[in-house]
Design the sequence.
């Protein structure tokens, strides 16, 4: 492993890759700090750009944007109570009160340090745990890969707690994935006579439409958020404060990493759980919500650690741990790569370059955050009525450039409108994306497994690994169904008591 890390460091230090990494960090800073442009939207917008890049540079770019945008959401959360990303929502609870008390610089310093430490811890776990999981998964064959795909689909179907909408979203994604020529028999499916659909529905217009275009439409309906600059002095290494929050950072980093590794949970949940646990362990709970330093350190250490932890199942098993990693999974598919155990054994240079790059991203957070925040004040007055059209133009140009196809552009716009309408009813769009990405894998491995067993379905339960994976999927779905019922019964029992 040490040699692999040295090889990854050598790749990262190449001038072009170092430029890509630095640019990605700065782009992620901007996207995370400006409300309305999150990390997932930036990853989606730049996905077509990476199509012409080498895979190593492409995934260093996407993962670095992801990591840096998770951090920078805290800036506007602390200064304006307007979180730049969903992961920073909990940070605003104690960060903004500190700003109101004239301690904005102190609050930002706590957030920067906690984010960097949490991210470094999560990256270290990513480096150590991913090869271990991948080695275990090398025993997989067709039944195990099918069970793994089912697990990925059921995990995402359970997002948000509405199992029915999640399952419908997965089914929609599976239907989209089935368009085109059957890979095993050559049969034409669901093209409605269109030559443009013979090769199937391209993943890029689906992702860009559902995430970026729908978000622009939603923000246009909500109206602009106007922010103004503020003056303050940031002190990152404030040793009395560090002694006060060090236990919180360690506990939250561990908790965030564990939650991030669990597929389908995400950094936002990690921040919420970590904040609640910090309040529970505190000797004086009344300080929280009024500007407690631990109230900033806990969610920031947790969400950055969780962002790195979410990459563990992506690289080792091909299961995304969050919505953004689901998009990154789509990027791997676009580049002709399939994350998982076999991918780990054959792409060491790419994997360890990404690992080293992510560790360097967290160092860059410490180095670049202060000057970036100083410059950010010049961007805060830009209204979304200007940013929104720029995002749409980038989406149209990027989608068209992949295949020089206007059909892809129309599909992107159609999925954008559909995503906007579906989100109004709380529809989990990630479920559709995972259906599109994992659908072909599930279908092909199911058919290969049945060919091996001559149609005997017991092959999935007689093989230990596939049986365990399917059991986990069943338990996840069952918990999603049963948990709300138990909560309602408990609530009625408390009312009558």
Sequence:
């Amino acid at each position: 492993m040490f040699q692999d890390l040295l090889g990854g460091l050598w790749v990262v230090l190449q001038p072009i890759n170092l430029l890509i990494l630095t640019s990605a960090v700065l782009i992620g800073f901007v996207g995370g700090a400006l409300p309305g442009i999150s990390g997932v939207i930036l990853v989606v917008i730049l996905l077509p750009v990476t199509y012409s890049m080498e895979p190593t540079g492409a995934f260093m770019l996407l993962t670095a944007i992801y990591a840096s945008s998770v951090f920078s959401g805290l800036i506007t959360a602390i200064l304006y109570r307007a979180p730049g990303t969903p992961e920073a929502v909990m940070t605003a609870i104690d960060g903004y009160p500190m700003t109101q008390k004239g301690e904005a610089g102190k609050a930002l310093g706590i957030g920067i340090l906690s984010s960097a430490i949490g991210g470094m811890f999560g990256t270290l776990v990513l480096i150590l745990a991913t090869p271990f999981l991948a080695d275990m998964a090398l025993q997989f064959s067709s039944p195990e890969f099918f069970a793994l795909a089912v697990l990925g689909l059921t995990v995402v179907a359970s997002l948000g707690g509405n199992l029915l909408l999640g399952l419908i979203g997965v089914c929609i994604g599976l239907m989209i994935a089935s368009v085109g020529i059957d890979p095993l028999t050559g049969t034409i499916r669901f093209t409605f006579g269109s030559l443009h659909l013979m090769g199937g529905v391209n993943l890029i217009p689906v992702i860009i439409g559902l995430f970026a275009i729908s978000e622009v439409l939603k923000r246009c309906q909500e109206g602009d958020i106007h922010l103004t600059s503020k003056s303050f002095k940031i002190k990152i290494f404030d040793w009395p404060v560090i002694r006060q929050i060090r236990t919180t950072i360690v506990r939250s980093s561990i908790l965030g990493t564990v939650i991030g590794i669990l597929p389908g949970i995400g950094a936002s949940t990690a921040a919420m759980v970590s904040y609640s646990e910090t309040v529970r362990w505190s000797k004086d709970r009344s300080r929280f919500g009024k500007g407690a330093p631990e109230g900033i350190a806990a969610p920031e250490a947790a969400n950055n650690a969780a962002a790195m932890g979410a990459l563990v199942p992506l690289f080792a098993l091909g299961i995304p741990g969050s919505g953004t990693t689901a998009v990154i999974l789509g990027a791997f598919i676009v580049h002709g790569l399939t994350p998982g155990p076999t991918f780990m054994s054959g792409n060491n240079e790419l994997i360890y370059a990404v690992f080293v790059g992510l560790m360097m991203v967290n160092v860059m957070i410490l180095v670049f955050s202060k000057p970036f925040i100083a410059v950010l004040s010049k961007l805060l007055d830009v209204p979304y009525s200007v940013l929104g059209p720029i995002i749409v133009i980038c989406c149209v140009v990027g989608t068209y450039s992949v295949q020089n196809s206007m059909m892809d552009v129309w599909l992107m716009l159609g999925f954008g409108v559909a995503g906007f309408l579906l989100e109004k009813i709380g529809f989990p769009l990630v479920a559709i994306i995972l259906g599109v990405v994992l659908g072909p894998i599930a279908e092909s491995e199911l058919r290969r497994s049945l060919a091996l067993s001559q149609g005997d379905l017991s092959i999935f339960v007689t093989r230990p690994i596939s049986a365990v994976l399917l059991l986990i999927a069943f338990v996840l779905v069952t918990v999603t169904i049963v948990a709300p019922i138990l909560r309602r019964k408990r609530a009625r029992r408390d009312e009558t008591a």
About this structure: Residues 2-496 form one domain. The longest helix spans residues 104-137.
